[in-house]
Records
---
Amino acid sequence: MRRRAVLALSGSALAAPAWLRARPAAASAPPGYRVTWFDAATPGSGRVGSRDVTAAGDGTVWFCGQRNGTLNRLDPKTGAVRVVNLGQGAAPHGVIRGPDGAAWVTEGGQNAIARVDAGDHRVQLWRLPERFANANLNTGVFDDRGTYWFTGQNGIYGRFDPRSERMEVWEAPRGRGPYGIARTPQGGIWYVSLAGNHLAQIEDLETARVRIVEPPTPNQGARRVWPDKQGRLWISEWNSGNVSMHDPRDGSWKVWRLPGERPRAYSVWVDPADKVWLTDFPANAIVRFDPVNEGFVSFPSDRPNANVRQMDGIAGEAWGGESGTDRIVRIEYGL
């Protein structure tokens, strides 16, 4: 089933860049690191709800404005933010850079997959079938063939082929909960279920058949998943406060608890050096984990209730969206 809406927004509708000032590095950053915050809100934007981020490939960073229905593009050299309105009722959740260079968004407010052109910022929308209204879209990823796979917390997973514009959606095998999704370097597509407390592999990309993999910690609240270069899957566990690692090659698991009394791990991102970055809401911090020495380094926000959502980055830079403060945070490392 195919349903598409194209929003041909004018230059004025896209809004002119607003020039913003980046905050200085935090004095408390450990040696070898530098932390910088950027304002996400532009004049008149109201609350942005800056959340999931992804590198745009040219030094700029895309981030979702879940509260004001926008996708935004930050230039860290100047602090300028380019605002793209995704449409009436928009509430974007996740964003990734596609193989075509565009930003692809799970647009929960309009129950659609959105594409924002990297050049002219034109918005295209492909709505889910009416049978799957209010899917609570979460996260997307492209497979090696250029097909876009996505999850919805209300119990769905699906795929969209940009070439044919064919949209297919299925009920998840255990109902509510599908959340983070990832592609391994070996081409595998995996997702985790927050409400369902499990890891799942889409083991047949033709039939979309799903295989459930049980983590060792019961009721762990698996929230996000990200692979390292070896294809091992790193999982942030919201309920348990653990970061776990599953190796599909031998079926093994390892588990580490984040520091602090009551951690809750939200985001997970693995950098090009295979170091693991997480966010911990109760600690109000981003946390870096080194699997080699099993050590943690913490980067608390300088404002309360930062609530950093899904991270991303490039070599030497980790990025996140502080959804509670309407800021974007960058941690430079290896300095």
---
Amino acid sequence: MLLWICVLLLVYLLMVSVGVLSQGFRSISGGSEGAEAIFEFATNPLVGVLLGILATALVQSSSAVTSVIVGLVGGGLPIAIAIPMIMGSNMGTTVTNTLAALGNLREDQAFNRSFAAATVHDFFNLFTILIFLPLEIIFHPLQWLSGLLAGWVIGSADVSVSQFDFIRVLTRPLINAIRDLLRLLPDQVSGLAMIFAGFALVLVSVYLLNRVLHLVMTGRAQDIFNAAIGKNAGMALLSGLIVTLIVQSSTLTTVLIVPMAGAGLVSLAQVYPFTLGANIGTPITALLSATAITGEYQLVAMQIALVHLLYNTLGVALFAALPPLWRLPIQSAQLLADGASRSRWVVPAYSLGVFFILPGLVFGSQTFFANKNPVVIKAEQNNEVYDSLRQRSEQSNMVIE
């Protein structure tokens, strides 16, 4: 019983750690305002994807990024320009999984398993972008379908799940206490201190979870856990969907599965569909939250939520229908994990390169040449709509993560 209490406390600590890390990134990046400044330079779809990755990786608050996108579309930004931003945001939020895998850095086999589990979601998102971005540019299927469905959904009752977010209720007091304590430091370093504290807590909680789970997950407990996760892809996907609907964050769902993979409790073949279920779960909560936004611009919020739901759902369906495509993220993640096992330099090269350096270079070049998108600027300047809609979407807990 004592060991199970330790497991629950460590899971709680891991959730708090992710929250502290997010608060730190949001503090130094400027939150919604930081994402807004980044999106000003989205001059074409490819740049929009890369800036979506950068904005979400830096802000570490998908609700803040989503609120900016909703506000921009409400302010007049064409949905065709917003969709690549959503694709990039979907990718950018997975950086937290990679950080969680570092908790097993000292144990080769555990690290290999956890790093593969952390990055399989990345590769699915990456390959989905490579397939759907050209299709969207040429044929606009997401824009057309979301516009059609949004009109049907409008008028539904407010079934926002944000009021039932008990995970936030449980973790927020400790997260805020840590944040307030670190804010006693000078403004210039308090945000960095929160990032350092959150990262350290993630490493400690993942390392200890790996150790404790080895002790408790035996015999009957292992059988029950395998039944809950699912012994086939369909059950694993359903499990990931249900867990994400409960915790209302695919980031938390996928971060929690990383130490379990490191402990050898679940295979990569189980983790993969579980994370895809989480990928579908979050836009469902965003869709429900969009019903809390009423009035003239409800259609805007609804269409953004539907774009994300359609994007993730159609991506999973396409990969499931084509076995070679289904196996591709698993093979890629395992190949990367094997490379990281041989050389630990693969980890920072991958994490920094994909989420920060490459999109950062694009952002830097756009900034250097002052290459801003006038359509985005015009949408931001529509203050009466943009500011109001951005705040309402963030308050309603619309998330892309």
---
Amino acid sequence: MGKNKKVGIAVIIVIIFIILIFNANSKSNLIRQMQGPIEGTESVLTSGNNLIVISKNNHTFTWQWDNLRKWPMVAKPNAAFITPVFDNKIVYNLSNSGKLILTDLKAEKEISSLSLPYGSEPKRVKTSSNHNFGIVSFIENDVLKLALFDSALKDLSIVFQKDTNEEKFTLNDFDITDGADLIAGTGKKDKAWIFVKDIKNDKIVFEKTFDEYNQFTIVEFSPDGKTIYVAEKVRFILALDSQTGAVVRIYEMPEYQTPAHQKQNISCLAISPDNKVLAVDTEPACTIWFWDIASGKKIDEIHASDLTVSDIAFSPDSKYLATGCLVSPEIKIWKVPQLK
């Protein structure tokens, strides 16, 4: 046998060994797999002790984090979008209307409701990490508006607006702090764009563009509201100071070969409730990366699925991570890697 052939065989053996170790590590972190929505998962959230999975048809599947063996509670409202709020309730937008409805987790009883301005077009709703406050985006007379509501859904107050005719911009995502002090929005204004507004004082804290990035697609406040995490779509997560906009740290995922019809992208991110771990999923690798927030060092990575990971959420005690799949019912629970 020639020397080159022996070297080639040795390389193949080493590669197979590495793959086997990687797969073994991924499987060892898997705690449980549950049956979620048949049509696939749009988002995964933790609200109190509830693990709430929202399907692509805007149906909710609710488990208790401390009893995942029990069958989930399922609600199927006629919703255009839906989100959980504080105290075992959900808010949804009634399909083909501008009406927001507050109901219980089974969507059996309407508790209260609010109507958006006549003729407005609702786009999206998102809540703070403690689900005490929410933001709904809508278009009214070509003006993009973000309106604040609390978990009782008693009133809507406009906290941000921008005329789409006066400025060319795209708002991809927004978030709000747990105390409804700050709101952040990200997207594109020629280049990657982010703003932060002080809601209580009604003033812009900062507004910045980053020439080195094409756009920002995801934004999340840390639990303490001091840091903002923004994804630039492909490989980088920026941690910014929420008061100054200064870049505190940049988290980078490696570039890898993708199929011709797919491009590498960041699909979702989550910050643990104890503010110690950052988790980010990158597609089409279906790989979740974990970082120690304090040191900025990578802790571990897991291959979460053979299909597209749609969203992730930490458990209330930060010990576990739930993952949803965009095109299948699989809901997986993973043990969060330990800090090194």
---
Amino acid sequence: MTATSAPATAPGVRTATLPADAVLAVLRAALQEDAPYGDITSQTLIPAEAQATAVLNARVPGVFSGGQVFAAAMKLTDPDAAVELLVADGAAFTPGTPLARVTGNARSVLLAERVALNLVQRMSAIATRTAEFVALVDGTGARITDTRKTTPGLRVLERYAVRCGGGANHRFSLSDAVLAKDNHLAVLTGGDPARLTAVLQGARAQLGHTTHFEVEVDSMEQIEPVLAAGVDTIMLDNFSLAELAAGVALVRGRARVEASGNVDLATVARIAATGVDLISVGGLTHSVTALDLGLDIQLDIQPDVPAGRAPGPGADPAPARG
């Protein structure tokens, strides 16, 4: 297996490496869906011995995410493929920028093409959107974070893409931290706000000292009773700008303050200016449009060689667009 080369990660980007097993699990499921019985098109048209060099090119500007996924997809279908990552995850690029290059068995490259593109296009779209939000709150002290509104089965990739864009991750799953939302509080208190502090204190007493405890509130009146329970973070959900500023002043550093709801590119700077510590944005993952990336392939096949026959020595490569 040829080692994958990669440039250094872009400065200031908190990415960390994706878990290889998780990436392979996603890729295997995607390939099983896309080619359950093989790729009959390539098997019919492309000689088994043909080699291909393919370049992943940017059609639009953006922020790259998914180099490891691209490489793993290509190596999953051809373990001997040589993959070169030309742009680091987290790095910005312009239209026409070559992002990665692969050389390997042509059938295998074509088999992996759509799966690799689908995932890297989505991951790069998330990184690009996140970077837009992060730029708008620069200098305020607020951090942009994602939510659990991710594509089922792709959370590990989408959360990584958020980090590539300079954002932070919220709890990964329901198993990682306590986040009491309105429905939890309704069940706990039976609709009696006077019980709020006591029930939260009782819940807190069940937790280990390392477990983060966050509570969502939807009114100013809930802030003091929630703070009295000793929570780590208080989420101000769908508060107006004036209410957010007042909520931050009321909390006075006794807990982290997270703003959630009605956050988009038009509102995020004003939300950050209220002094909140965190701004969670479901739109980072749930509503992005895949970024336009393409795979441009050059096959070592003479144009006049019939399907099923290997090209002769010294054949000139014929370019093809993927």
